[in-house]
Specification:
Blueprint lengths: L5 H10 L3 E3 L11 E3 L1 H20 L4 E4 L7 H6 L2 H4 L1 E6 L6 E3 L14 H6 L17 E4 L3 E3 L12 E3 L5 H5 L2 H7 L6 E10 L14 E11 L4 H18 L7 E5 L11 E7 L13 E10 L1 H5 L22 E3 L4 E3 L2 E8 H12 E5 L5 E5 L10 E5 L5 H14 L5 E3 L5 H11 L3 E5 L1 H6 L1 E6 L5 E5 H12 L4
Bound molecules: adenosine-5'-triphosphate (ATP).
The site of adenosine-5'-triphosphate has 16 residues, from β10, β13, β16 and α10.
């Protein structure tokens, strides 16, 4: 089982301290969300799992943390200033602003010209039903800002952008990473960090927001070896999600058709997740979780000083570097091709939450929510619960056990309710194990370990507890 819709997760996330609507005391801010105590743990665990898998468990990877605000030229030569836009239309009746490519063309858009369909009044505003829409015009998604205290609002010399992707920070550091770490192609550079897009229509909870986090990796290969490497990364990424518990039934690969490809891409395959299972039309259940693109040598060439156009003029007169690579073994120089797996932290968190959601009925006929998160992702690994909170010896023993576990795993102590309620709370937040201390524990130095998924209980000696939990959690160093 998984969540029947995103709304179920929105209310669970708020109730249990995962995700709160941002700025709520001032009426909120459309599409902004704050990650609460459990949400920040879940995000960190997703990022840690990705980093370990992507960087530590391979021999050909380096990490990077580049600046969010980069020299404006980066966005000029990457093509973002010119092309990083969505087609925008306004509804003249209700003033809604809409993304033209997301309107309902009843299947006509694949063959037809969007502007013509809108002009011929074949498309309706989803808010009010009017066909009185403006022509689509490009709306650049990059957030603008000014650098420095003295700059005037519209001073072009002070103009800067918040990065809309982490990738460009990797390309401009390609040589520095390669040389300082003495790397030979093929190798990759991974980065996790915030990105910003002034989305026309954000929404669906944390699926699409204006501020979000990305986990991106640029894998540099010799031209000609790009297609095989691309396919390998598609398979690797799909397997990463299933290894952390996402069900295969809720994942699919989507080959982007030619007309959808970004200007730099030779081929892009997206991993889709079933984010919208409640929708009537099966095809609309799916949306992008991550994309794996073959970006060719577009970016390294675009940021290099050497390439010239047909008239022999430098294409990039602002760059001071040439980002080509000299292959010592083959004695050849080339611009490496780049394979880019690009995932969203927040969309991954949403998929993990939806997939982990399940319900179970207890002996009393009450329905309980169990969040069956992979142990590596679970915000809390173990909750230590005293059976009698008015018995100082039991409380003291429980607190001591919690303290002994906390250096090696995230542990909490809770005595704010009856045991049934405490178990239910931990099940709902995805804690794999509860450890209960009762009267007998004082005698036999043993505790009860309860499993989240099976509700089975086992008696374990306190001396063996840490080892026992570590083994079952497979918490890796
Ligand atoms: P979409 O088509 O959904 O706008 P995209 O194809 O523009 O996404 P990419 O540029 O490929 O997205 O970014 C890589 C990943 O970053 C996406 O697969 C997604 O997980 C995440 N991402 C992109 N935009 C957003 C956003 N506005 N909010 C949350 N995550 C995002």
């Amino acid at each position: 089982m998984s969540a029947p819709n995103i709304e179920t997760i929105v209310s669970l996330a708020k109730r249990r301290g995962f995700v709160f609507p941002s700025s709520e005391i001032y009426g909120g801010l459309g599409s902004a969300w704050d990650y609460g105590p459990l949400g920040v743990e879940l995000c960190n665990n997703v990022k840690r799992a990705w980093w370990r898998w992507m960087v530590y468990e391979r021999d050909d990877m380096e990490g990077l943390d580049s600046s969010i605000i980069l020299n404006r030229s980066v966005w000029k030569y990457s093509g973002h200033e010119e092309t990083f836009s969505d087609p925008l239309v306004d509804c003249r009746e209700c003033n809604s602003r809409l993304r033209a490519d997301k309107l309902d063309y009843a299947g006509a858009a694949e063959s037809g010209d969007i502007a013509a369909l809108i002009r011929d009044k074949q498309v309706k505003c989803p808010s009010c039903g009017s066909t009185n829409l403006t022509e689509p015009r490009p709306f650049n998604l990059m957030f603008r800002t000014q650098l420095g205290a003295a700059s005037a609002e519209d001073d072009p010399n002070a103009l800067a952008y918040l990065r809309p992707e982490t990738a460009q920070g990797i390309f401009i550091n390609f040589h520095l990473v390669q040389q300082t770490m003495r790397r030979k192609v093929p190798f990759g550079i991974a980065q996790i960090g915030k990105s910003f897009r002034n989305e026309v229509t954000p929404g669906n909870f944390i699926f699409r927001t204006r501020e979000f986090e990305q986990m991106e990796m640029e894998y540099f290969v010799r031209p000609g070896e790009d297609e095989t490497a691309h396919q390998e990364w598609i398979d690797n990424c799909f397997n990463w999600y299933t290894s952390l518990g996402l069900s295969r039934d809720n994942l699919r690969l989507y080959e982007q058709p030619k007309e959808e490809l970004a200007h730099y891409a030779k081929r892009t395959v997206d991993i889709h997740y079933r984010f919208f299972p409640e929708r009537a039309e099966a095809e609309k259940h799916w949306d992008e979780l991550m994309g794996i693109a073959n970006r060719t040598d577009f970016d390294l060439r675009a940021h290099s000083k050497n390439p010239v156009d047909a008239e022999g003029k430098r294409v990039n007169p602002d760059s001071t570097e040439d980002l080509s690579y000299f292959d010592e073994a083959r004695k050849e120089r080339y611009y490496p091709y780049v394979i880019e797996p690009a995932a969203g932290v927040n969309r991954s968190v949403l998929a993990f939450l939806m997939d982990a959601y399940s319900e179970r009925t207890n002996d009393k006929g009450e329905t309980r929510v169990i969040l069956k998160l992979h142990p590596e992702l679970a915000p809390i690994k173990v909750a230590v619960l005293p059976l009698a909170k008015n018995k100082p010896e039991i409380v003291g023993m429980a607190k001591a056990i919690k303290r002994s576990l906390q250096p090696v795993m995230r542990a909490v102590y809770d005595d704010t309710g009856g045991i049934g309620k405490l178990y239910a709370r931990q099940d709902e937040t995805g804690t794999p194990f509860c450890v209960t201390i009762d009267h007998q524990s004082l005698e036999d130095e043993a505790v009860t370990v309860r499993d989240r998924d099976t509700w089975e209980q086992e008696r374990v000696k306190v001396a063996d507890l840490q080892q026992h939990l570590r083994q079952r959690l497979e918490v890796r160093g």
